[in-house]
Q: What sequence folds into this?
């Protein structure tokens, strides 16, 4: 009986000696990863803040599509949403996925020099189902066609046009200037 207890204690001691360094190293690695993620988040946040404060509607009008998506990512972040940019291809009709208060919203971003048509509304309706979202939005720096407005109304899709985008941007800029 005494040999059995000794053997169990000895085995436990050996396991403890072997596992302790592994646990310490994994803890250190986790801390380093957490710190680097925080630093990246801080850098991206400052870059996003500068992007929002330096962009007006005329600079938005000359952005590329991916730049407009990045602008919207920052804008919605500062509006209090958790924001995820979808893949560039096979995005199923959503450019951004927003989450706030357990409400998931898919966003189709359209940086156009003409009115946005019903195809964008159709795409975001499909994305809503794919991403299991509660809401769908289409955001543009321009306006929407009558067909897009009709389809959006029928499918409960929120359309954010030039004027509403400018207002949202103004509100976020004011908030960022006050917080500075």
A:
């Amino acid at each position: 009986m005494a040999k059995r207890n000794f053997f169990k204690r000895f085995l436990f001691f050996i396991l403890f000696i072997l596992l302790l360094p592994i646990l310490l190293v994994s803890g250190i690695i986790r801390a380093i990863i957490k710190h680097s993620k925080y630093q990246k988040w801080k850098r991206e946040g400052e870059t996003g803040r500068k992007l929002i404060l330096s962009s007006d509607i005329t600079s938005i009008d000359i952005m590329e599509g991916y730049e407009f998506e990045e602008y919207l990512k920052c804008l919605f972040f500062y509006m209090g949403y958790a924001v995820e940019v979808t893949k560039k291809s096979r995005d199923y009709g959503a450019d951004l996925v927003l989450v706030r208060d357990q409400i998931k919203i898919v966003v189709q971003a359209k940086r156009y020099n003409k009115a946005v048509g019903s195809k964008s509304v159709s795409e975001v309706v499909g994305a809503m189902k794919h991403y299991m979202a509660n809401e769908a939005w289409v955001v543009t720096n321009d306006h929407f066609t009558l067909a897009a407005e009709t389809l959006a109304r029928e499918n409960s899709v929120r359309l954010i046009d030039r004027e509403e985008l400018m207002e949202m941007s103004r509100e976020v800029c004011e908030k960022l200037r006050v917080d500075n």
